[in-house]
Amino acid sequence: MEKIIVDCSTGESTIVALTPEEIAQLEADAKAAADLKAAEEAEAEAKAQAKADLLAKLGITEDEAKLLLG
Amino acid sequence: MPSTYTLISSNVLTGSAASVTFSAIPSTYTDLVLRISARTARAAVVDRIQVNVNSLTTAIYSMRGLLGDGSTASSNSDSAQTFANFVYTNGNTTTSNTFSTTELYLPNYAGSTNKVMSVVGATEDNATANYEYAGAHLIGTTSAISSITLTGLVSSFVSGSSFYLYGIKNS
């Protein structure tokens, strides 16, 4: 894997190979982002299911709920 | 309109790159504008760009933002993070050869107070779901910004991604 460094004082761009430590950090960051995304999706799904369950319990549709709360 | 709007440096990738860093940024401007058109190799419709200034990776980055995905609007926030988050970009399952459009604006980047950054942009895709976002960021450093590093959060930037850094002067 490589990174690009653009020196603004000269306008020159340099391609530099990532160190093993940098690669490890990138992989850790990517995993953390994926884990966070999965947690966010799970939470959104749980909220949607809870909402659907409540509407079913009340015996009303979502539009009817909006009408009541409006 | 500002008095001057000058291209400082640019880079258009001819291959993949994990990150792009603008270093030795001159302190002679008033504000900085970074225009990005990017896509990463992540096998998804969206990825994020991790933004760091002055190679700082301590927990000094916070933000509040708005996000729309084509059907739902939401807000997001982050605090005490090690990079500026929620800067979205195209992933590799979007329509071929399409790239996100993003602008980062850093006013008073060379001043001696904490830094702020506004972000606005959109991913591009020939699909009903797309991401439009706006964010207000706070970066807890009082040093002048002399470098900005952009890193694909999950995957590397692909060839064709472009990065243009402009300096704005108010006189």
Architecture overview:
With 70 residues, chain A is an alpha+beta fold. Chain A contains two helices and two strands, in the order E-E-H-H. In chain A, strands 1-2 form a two-stranded antiparallel ribbon. In chain A, a hairpin with a 5-residue loop joins strand 1 and strand 2. Chain A is elongated and about 65 Å long. The model of chain A has no long low-confidence stretch (mean pLDDT 86). By secondary structure, chain B is mostly beta strands. Helix content of chain B is 0%, strand content 51%. In chain B, the strands form two sheets. An eight-stranded antiparallel sheet of chain B has the order 1-12-3-8-9-10-5-6, with no helix packed on it. A four-stranded antiparallel sheet of chain B has the order 2-11-4-7, with no helix packed on it. Chain B is globular and about 45 Å long. At the A-B interface, strand 1 and helix 1 of A face strand 1 and strand 2 of B.
Q: What are the segments of chain B in which pLDDT stays under 50 over at least 5 consecutive residues?
A: none
Oligomer category: heterodimer
Average of pLDDT of chain A = 86
Work out the helix count of chain A: 2
Strand proportion of chain A, as a percent range, falls in 15-25%
User: What Rg of chain B, in angstroms, do the CA atoms define?
Assistant: 15 Å
Largest sheet of chain B: 8 strands, antiparallel
